[in-house]
Amino acid sequence: MKDADCVQFLQSVCPQLRMRWAGFRKVRRQVCKRIDRRLKELGLPSIASYSSYLSSHRGEWQVLDSLCRISISRFCRDQRVFDFLTKTVLPELAQSALASGQSVLHCWSAGCASGEEPYTLSILYKLGVCPQLPDRAPIGLDVVATDADPHLLQRAESGCYPASSLRDLPPSWISMAFERVGDAYSIRERFRQGVHFFRQDIRKEMPVGPFRLILCRNLAFTYFEPALQREVLSKMLPRLALGGAIVIGRRESLPGEISALEGWNPSLGVYRAR
């Protein structure tokens, strides 16, 4: 399948999937390879024949939707963001939770893929944040991690990763947080504790909350059409605790002015509830 043919196809189907073609421009090869495999599975000779197949098989749209999920992830992806979370956001949120009499800091990782982001939160909180807290105050971390892809969630539950996924973590943290298992690295039990995985598609359902930190990076505000972005955000904001933080991708933008949020570090995609 030619790249130009796949691009034309994606441009034509994105509106029906409520997606933005612009979000797929740089990652389209991942999607095109999946679509090409799907053509072979169905015994279809061309992308044009797949378009016809979609017209007569409505259930195939759900398959296509799953083929368009981007699964690029690694630990501490975009290190500047996680440095800001470690040094500023999480310590402040933890102290705020303590001041209100809570013993747990509740967080949500939306679109968690194979678990690198929620496990990163666990690692940096326990190794980077807790030592900063006054008298090392005993406040735990609870991370709800959701994704629509059951295969990615299965990998997340296993907690085993190649070395390439860990390249942005400090070497000392790797040795403390992971156990070497052959060519892979398995996250230790201490950092699995408090991380819970659930299959959810944020277009249809969300965890209840409230959360003091919500991470929704490189998903809704990259791939969803603007109207769907607003729908998702309108359902997400009531789940954000007063003064809590929401983090989007550093190259993403919110869909218009959101009066309920103010910039904490907008250049890093970090906002907080007013």
Search tags:
274 residues; alpha/beta; Rossmann fold; seven-stranded mixed beta sheet; three-stranded antiparallel beta sheet; 10 strands; 19% strand
Question: What would you note in describing this structure?
Answer:
With 274 residues, the protein is α/β, with parallel strands linked by helices. It folds into 2 domains: 65 residues, no CATH class; 195 residues, Vaccinia Virus protein VP39 (Rossmann fold). The strands form 2 sheets. It has a 7-stranded mixed beta sheet with strand order 6-2-1-7-8-10-9. Strands 3-5-4 form a 3-stranded antiparallel beta sheet. Helix 7 links the parallel strand 1 and strand 2. Helix 6 crosses helix 7. The model has no long low-confidence stretch (mean pLDDT 94).
Number of strands: 10
Low-confidence stretches: none
Mean pLDDT rating = 94
Q: Report the span from N to C terminus.
A: 49 Å
Helicity, as a percent range: 40-55%
Output the CATH homologous superfamily of the largest domain: Vaccinia Virus protein VP39
- Categorize the overall geometry: globular
Number of helices: 12
Q: What is the count of structural domains? A: 2
Brief summary of the model shown:
With 274 residues, the protein is an alpha/beta fold. It has 12 helices and 10 strands.
SSE topology:
Layout: H1 3-17, H2 21-24, H3 28-42, H4 47-56, H5 60-67, H6 79-99, E1 104-110, H7 116-129, E2 140-147, H8 150-158, E3 160-162, H9 171-177, E4 178-181, E5 184-187, H10 189-192, E6 195-199, E7 211-215, H11 220-223, H12 226-236, E8 240-247, E9 261-265, E10 270-273
Parallel strand pairs: 1-2, 1-7, 2-6, 7-8
Antiparallel strand pairs: 3-5, 4-5, 8-10, 9-10
Helix pairs in contact: 6-7
